[in-house]
Amino acid sequence: MSTTPREPTQTLSRWWPRSVAIVMLFGFAVLILISVKAYRSAPPIPAQALAPDGALVFTAADVTAGQEVFLKYGLMDNGTIWGHGGLLGPDFSAQTLHGLALHRAEGLARSRYSSAFEQLPAPERASVEGTVAAEFKANGYDPATGTLRLPPDSSAAFAAQVAAWTAYFLDPAVNGGLTRGAVTDPTELRQLTAFFTWTAWAAAAQRPGAAHSYTNNFPYDPLVGNHPTAGAVLWSAVSLLFLLGGTAIVLLAFGKFDYLGWHADAPSPSAPLAVTGLSAITPAQAATLKFMAIAGLLFLAQTLIGGAVAHYRADPGDFYGFDLSSLLPSNLLRAWHLQLAIFWVATAYVGGALFVAAALSGRDPKAQPVLIHALFGALVLVVVGSLAGEWLGIRDLLGDLWSWFGNQGWEYLELGRFWQVLLVVGLFFWFWLVQRALRGANADPELRPFVRFFLIAAFAIPFFYLPAFFFDSTTHYSVVDVWRFWLIHLWVEGFFEFFVTVIVAVILLQLGLVGRLTALRVIYLDAILYFGGGLIGTAHHWYFTGQSELTMALGATFSALEVVPLTLLTLDAWDFSRVTRGAGPAYRHRWTFFFLMAVGFWNFTGAGVFGFLINTPIVNYYEIGTLLTINHGHAAFVGVFGMLAVGLMAYVLRELSSEAVWPFVEKCLKLSFWGLNGGLALMILLSLLPGGLLQLWDVLQHGYWHARSTAYTATPLARFVEWMRIWGDLVFIVLGALPLAIALLASYRDRWRGQESGAPLRAAG
User: Fold this and answer.
1) How many CB atoms are closer than 10 A to CB 700?
2) How many CA atoms within 13 Å lie on the side-chain side of 529?
3) Burial class (CB in 10 A: 0-12, 13-18, 19+), 337
4) Does residue 216 come out as left (phi exceeding 0), alpha (psi in the -120 to 50 range) or beta?
5) Is residue 614 within 8 Å of 257, Cβ to Cβ?
6) Residue 10 pLDDT
7) N or C: which terminus of the chain has fewer CB atoms within 10 Å of its end residue's CB?
8) What's the distance, CA 307 to chain centroid?
């Protein structure tokens, strides 16, 4: 590929980069303001919590130690706190809150009416409920002394909760597949209950100066007076105005400026390619195939583990006659499932970026293949080491080093701190490799804007992982959730998406399917639209985690704007199909384009429709932590980031597969395309969506604690819906992930044999 410097023939308006800068500065300014405010809004942890008779129930040290117990044993991958975490067990805060309230209600019923609470007539029952709600809503915390005065009978209620949670950890059939006796130490059980009790207190006690609790009255539980706030209703309505108004403005822009989108200034098939097509594969590009191969194997492993996790939901006490929880408990498998999802997608992006960077420059810097091999070795070390550490940590085999070499316990960030450090170092090393690979292309004025976008997007991936180091196991839970979602939302839903937009634009430019200005406009436009709502929209994760109502207002309104660019995908789908359908050199990449078009469908369906369904505060109040959350997560992550990753794999496979092996590889890709999309659709239609709606209905009827407990999840209907997921899982694994892994391994084996025989590194076709 020629990299002779050329003068750019056409340029875009300077308002494109200015607009991106304005959006980014405004978005980050507001997001930082929300994050700083979270430190002040976080529910206080009392120095001591006392019963009315002055007896000490728990201390701040107990709460902090209990949080560490919660993390050490991987319990966030079993149940949830304030709706965030695993959905195999209950919401620990909701279950504890209801247990404490029910204990108090029983005491009042027997003292007033000499009868069990459940047997009281309606008027007497309402009287007891009113007293319980008033006592739990009263905030007995004194900030001057750090003392919390608990409701009457709190010592006995706390002891009853210790006994209840002790029993919970004894039986995998009850606790969602934890190891039998996962937590048995009496001190740890008491500390863990103290942590749960503090989260329950914050969920019910009225925030000073407000008419709702610290968690905006979450969870829904009429017994303690927890109902949706007025703000949840108001900001849900306002978010609809933002959605409709934002959509109208963008549609108006697309109608007025017909050059927006992929179709604008695409060259005719006879026009010269914007960037010369690949005729020879460099050694560095050949070295990236192993990244794709390992990503395919990690993907297959993730799907198999996901199937096992789904089985735990359908039948937690038995795995076809074998006690799987004794060796691979459900919380460990869920941690692996989440980590492998991040690992395989990131690995595909890392390999794809290195491949495309080399294609832009047309040559390898000195020792680039050797350095890529070193990066691959580091990647394997982090993956294997962190997964093994999580197994050792959850089984309490690492002592005090559990958070460093085992599992930190935070959902999505389970890997130990040592492995996190290696991961970030490796990502910065990868960015340096990408940067040095692009030096040749940067000398060309025509390509320089793409090089800059490429580098900015690549640098953002390691840089925005750094919030993972802003907290540890003793940091306030509300504060942790701020930084945790900085990483989860911005890293995965923000800069990953922008990074792939740049790569796709460069690939289409390289193949001559779009012109230079079209590719640049798409990158700028996507940056404006995605970050315009996506940065501040991060706050929709913080409605009920101890932040103020201002956070709810900003999160609801700006997260509604995140749907706008996803809606536009329906307008642009046909144009993208027409652009990428052409004949000639581009047609051999048809499977890459098919996967990219699948991204458009799932982006609108999974992130747009299912995401907006659960993002309005009033719906999220009842829904968070139900199957509707999993429904959105699978459709959005697998359908968007997963399909993007597979699209990159298909692109690299087409370039690196010889003509001898390509027919077999193509058949596997075809099968994988239909298997992955069909399997995901079956998962959603047969299980996740109907199961989520049924669980939401149970929340509305009986309260949040009920829908998250075995009182609902163990019912025949709930279990039947869980079992129906097996059909989608089988199609997804057997016809989707497995053929993809076979294709990658076949191509890698063919390439390896070609290198051993001394065959030249040439592109197929």
Assistant:
1) 12
2) 25
3) buried
4) left
5) no
6) 61
7) C
8) 18
Residue 27: band (very low, low, confident or very high) from pLDDT cuts 50, 70, 90: very high
Q: What is the DSSP string of 345-379?
A: HHHHHHHHHHHHHHHHHSSPPTTHHHHHHHHHHHH
3-class SS at 206?
strand
Q: Which residues lie across from 415 on neighbouring strands?
A: 407
The answer on pLDDT for 151 being more than 50 is yes
Query: Which residues contact residue 356 at a Cβ distance below 8 angstroms, ignoring those fewer than 6 apart?
Result: 454, 503, 506, 507, 510
354 CB-contact burial (10 Å; exposed 0-12 / middle 13-18 / buried 19+): buried
Taking 90 as the threshold, does the pLDDT of residue 338 lie above it?
yes
Answer positive or negative: Cα dihedral of 457, 459, 461, 466: negative
CA distance linking residue 471 with residue 484, whole number of Å = 9
Question: What letter represents residue 676's amino acid?
Answer: L
Q: Give me the residue label for tokens 């991958």.
A: 77
- Structure token digits, residue 556: 């609801």
Q: 747 by DSSP, 3-state: which?
A: helix
Contact 499, 460 (CB under 8 A): yes
452 DSSP 8-state letter: H
pLDDT (tens digit, 9 = 90+) per residue, 496-533?
Answer: 778 877 888 888 777 777 777 877 888 888 888 778 88
pLDDT at site 329: 95
What lies within 8 Å, CB to CB, of 136 at 6+ separation is 97, 100, 101, 104, 151, 204, 205, 224, 225
Chain segment 222-256, per-residue pLDDT in tens: 999 999 999 999 999 999 998 888 888 877 766 66
Which of 505, 496, 557, 555 shows the shortest CA–CA distance to 530? 496
Contacts of residue 370, defined as CB under 8 A and 6 or more positions apart, other chains included, come to none
| Token pair of 276 as six digits | 């010369």
Helices (DSSP H) in 42-78: which residue ranges? 60-72
Q: Is the pLDDT of residue 335 over 70?
A: yes
594-643 pLDDT, tens digit per residue, is 888 888 788 888 888 898 889 999 999 999 999 999 999 999 888 888 99
> In 3D, which of 675, 679, 657, 676 has the Cα closest to residue 666?
657
Structural contact between residues 421 and 405, judged by C-beta atoms closer than 8 angstroms: no
Is the Cβ–Cβ distance between 98 and 92 less than 8 Å? no
User: What is d(CA 149, CA 163) in angstroms, rounded to the nearest whole number?
Assistant: 22
Sign of CA dihedral 144, 149, 155, 161: negative
> Of 40-49, 146-155, 370-379, 529-538, which gets the smallest average pLDDT?
529-538
Is residue 615 within 8 A of residue 677, CB to CB? The reply is no
- What domains, with CATH codes, occur in the chain? 43-227 (no CATH), 562-765 (1.20.210.10)
**Beta bridge partner(s), residue 49:** 58, 148
Tokens of 325: 């929880």
Q: Three-state DSSP class for 567?
A: helix
Longest Cα pair distance anywhere in the chain, in angstroms?
93
C-alpha atoms less than 13 angstroms from C-alpha of 433 in its C-beta half-sphere: 28
Cβ distance 30 to 554 under 8 Å? Answer: yes
